[in-house]
Amino acid sequence: MKVKNTDNINNSLRYLQQKKAVFDENKKDKFIIEGLGGKKKLNGKIAVAGAKNAALPALSASILFRNGFCVSNIPNIKDIDSMNILLEKLGAIVKKQAEKKYHIVTDEIKSVALDIEISKKMRGSIILTGVLLARFGKVSFPHPGGCIIGARPIDAFLNSFQKMGAKVQNRNGKYVVSVGKNKKLKGAKIFFNKITVTGTETLMLAGILAKGRTVIENAALEPEIKHLADFLNSCGAKIRGAGTSTIEIIGGNLLSAGNRVYKIPPDRIEAGSFLILGALSADNLEITDCDPKHMRALINILKDSGVPIIEEKNKIIIKDNGKIKNKHLKCIDIKTHEYPGFPTDLQSLMAIYLTQISGESLLFETIFEGRLNYTDDLINMGANIIIIDTHRIMIKGPTQLKGRELIGNDLRAEFAFFIATIVAKGKSVINNVRYIDRGYERIEERLSGIGVNIQRIKG
Ligand code: EPU
Q1: Domain end residue (candidates: 210, 245, 263)
Q2: pLDDT digits (tens, 9 = 90+) for 219-245
Q3: Phi, psi (5° rounding) for residue 227?
Q4: Cα distance between residue 449 and residue 422, in whole Å
Q5: Omega before 265 cis (within 30°)?
Q6: Which atom of ligand 1 is nearest to the CA of 156?
Q7: What percent of the chain has pLDDT over 90?
């Protein structure tokens, strides 16, 4: 099968279907938030959970292990539940050993078909395709879903599987990828035309059981990739260069974890979310259990803008911020970039920041074409935003945002709505909280703990 970068009609159809599904689901739980009207009243400590986007590849990697694999610091979120169900449906035994700690045994896997409904809701499901193909020679799956932030093609995955000797077919809307009876994936030289995070993870993991040498060029640099590779190497994998743009993997046998436990690193995007919230609405806030060195782009930008931030080894402190009026913070332009640049995942949250500071700031989303979808809602709340095109907006601040009823389309933009409604004057309702529950654990409890007036209404 020849795989093209985008099949425009299919992609926009898929996009519309996803959007409809979101609206259909909006009758479920909602949040009521009473805004602070621009006051900086939040105070206290908030701890960061393990990273969703480290936990999903780690759980997928369980397929590469003989005799089980143990992972700790797993966040308590819906995407993890979904990944565990996906694994169980394949035949894996997933046992919760303690709070946030799971033991997974994949020696009795019976199926190589990913559950259609779950995979269609979660982009992270695609990481399972590489490991299943590498271990069992076959996998079938639908086009993965996830947040509505653009078309999200999978050509890089399919082309790479083909390079490694697999045949790709599309049968009734399902991809079937196989290497043929008693054959293995072959090591190959892969160059990603566009840097892809889950693509890098998927192919790095697939290379571990492939025959020979796999080289991934223009690989993603996210710290979660190196963190996982280091652990896998301690269990017998041969991966070099993870964390750089060229990763080399020498294929071999199934891995063995022994008594080793893989600890999921802190979620730098969650930490960044709390930091942007704190910059706008907190007087004194300690963000604990995080790693500031993986958040350099955001911390530098906020410091340059005038936010009083102190960095410690595993902590970020916002100190005496109440004294600083938001309108006195300096305006800044934001351009998203692959790691270590400014993360696309924090772009929508930063837009709220830019509505509160003085001056005109350009916000340029370079990675996803549908990630400015929240803009109309912000304008509706009173923000002064000019939409330049699907990738760029100009924000003029400061503006007093007003409470409104909102519906999230994507996990991060939904957190941006939390920040906007906390900053705003009056009451807001945020509908369709399935996105927030997918990625931020016990969010209302944790935000209440630092003084946010938030209530979940069960649907
Ligand atoms: N791309 C292609 N073809 C492909 C794959 C990607 O053209 O086959 C393009 C995408 O359309 C996009 C760019 O490459 O323009 C980068 O996409 P990437 O593949 O890196 O995104 P992803 O791996 O699907 C992960 C995170 C996202 C995060 C992005 C960018 C997971 C499960 N998801 O997505 O996280 O925004 O990297 O950093 O790791 C989130 O957590 O809310 C989230 C959306």
Answers
A1: 263
A2: 999 999 999 999 999 999 999 999 999
A3: -55, -45
A4: 14
A5: no
A6: 8
A7: 87
Using CA atoms, how far apart are residues 18 and 144, in angstroms rounded to an integer?
11
The domain in which residue 368 lies consists of 21-41+293-305+325-457
Which residues form the catalytic set? 147
Residue among 194, 200, 270 whose CB has most ligand 1 atoms within 8 A, to mutate: 194
Q: Which of 10, 77, 196 to mutate to test the pocket of ligand 1 (most atoms within 8 A of CB)?
A: 196
Domain count, the chain: 2
Q: How far is the CA of 150 from the centre of ligand 1 (A)?
A: 10
pLDDT at 26: 42
Residue 275 φ/ψ, nearest 5 degrees: -65, -40
For residue 175, is pLDDT > 70?
yes
Amino acid occupying residue 18: Q
220, 246: one domain: yes
- pTM above threshold 0.90: yes
pLDDT at 182: 79
Q: Do both 29 and 84 map to the same domain?
A: no
Q: Are residues 113 and 36 part of one domain?
A: no
Residues with CB under 6 A from ligand 1: 5, 52-53, 56, 123-124, 147, 150, 152-157, 194, 196-199, 344-345, 367-368, 411-412, 439
Give yes or no: residues 439 and 342 share one domain.
Answer: yes
Per-residue pLDDT tens over the stretch 332-353 = 999 999 999 999 999 999 999 9
Is the domain of 65 the same as that of 117? Answer: yes
Residues 185 and 142 in one domain: yes
Residue 277 forms part of a structural domain: no
CA 75, CA 51: separation in Å to the nearest integer?
A: 7
Q: For residues 171, 4, 343 and 16, what is the CA-based torsion angle, rounded to 10 degrees?
A: -60
116 plus 223 within the same structural domain: yes
The Å distance, Cα 224 to ligand 1 centre, comes to 14
Answer yes or no: is 13 within a domain. Answer: no
Atom of ligand 1 nearest to the CA of 224: 39
Per-residue model confidence as pLDDT tens digits over 369-388: 989 999 999 999 999 999 99
Q: Which atom of ligand 1 is nearest to the CA of 127?
A: 32
